Amino acid sequence: MFGIQDAIREVTEKFPTSLYVSTCGFITRDLYNTADRPQNLYLVGSMGMAAPVGLGVALARPDKHVVVLDGDGSFAMNLSVLPLIAEHAPDLVHVVLDNGLHESTGGQRPVRIGDPAALALAAGYSAAFSVDSAEGLAAVRPERGVTSLVHVKCAPRGAHAGRRVQWTPQQVVERFRAEAVA
Amino acid sequence: MTVTQIEPAPAGQLETPAQQLVRAFAERGFTHFTGVPCSLLKGVFNVLEGKQAPLADGLTYLPAPREDSALGVASGLAAAGARPVVLMQNSGLGYSLNVLTSLNLIYDLHVPLIVSWRGHDGNDAVEHDVIGRELTNLLDVFDLKHTVFDPEKPYASVDRCLAKAEDGRFTPVLIVKEGI
Prior knowledge:
The structure holds two protein chains of two kinds.
Chain A: H1 4-14, E1 19-22, H2 26-35, E2 40-42, H3 50-60, E3 66-71, H4 72-77, H5 81-88, E4 92-98, H6 116-123, E5 127-131, H7 134-139, E6 147-153, H8 169-181
Chain B: H1 17-27, E1 32-35, H2 42-48, E2 60-63, H3 67-79, E3 84-88, H4 92-107, E4 113-116, H5 129-141, E5 145-148, H6 154-163, E6 172-176
Helix pairs in contact in B: 1-2, 1-6, 3-4
């Protein structure tokens, strides 16, 4: 298995121009420290909301591609959003970074999420992938214009995340909105 | 930005308070409605679901599985330049508090909320007793600026509600006490 930060880097290189929404805690901090860009809408709280926020972004800007970076804990927190997203079939890739831990809060065990790819397909996503290596993730080519989920089994960081997002929440929104409407 | 086109009401046909409420938000530039129903808001959801007449061009309605997810979708819409409104029963405010306090209020993504008020007179079904008694206190604690909808004056009610947002500085709440 490869590291969660490597997985985030791989995703940002795979989708360099997309609009991103990242879930709170270490995943937002990893995205910030890996590839800070105005196109990133960093959530610092509201666990479980990255996916619905991503749907809202996609509905407001149907011309743009959206990437949601979720964790296994935050994904489990809001499974009811899967059919909501599927109903609207946005141009969106829902990435579930599954290190099997609530690492941001000290490494506690989340509920086991089973098979997120199967859950997504059952809810109506067009496609779903499950990978557990850098090569596997690199080989995934989600079709554009449809909704897909990529379940990435990855290793815990084993170290502290990088620094917190230095932008204020208002700055995050201001620069994100400028990119979204451009 | 979506351009909202509102057809005028057919001549001689009076609009219901619910129709006027939706029209008022639409004419003020709002584009998306999302939320979870309440019986007191049945008429509004009928309008949004297009049961009487197709929803006006430029307006979109999304049923949400939970009130907090409705706020999440609305936050994404607002962050990307659209103008959403969220509807819920007052019971849904409980689910919503985390999203309000750790997303909407700190990112200044202030989305109007239309919140019904079950239990406002202490004489409703028991499950509404506590939240009904505390609704306005709860809104005040989080500085959510509320005003009560007057079915006799839907447009003025919406304007009064939106004025409380003070150009995006606060989250305005339109409380619906009686079924519309």
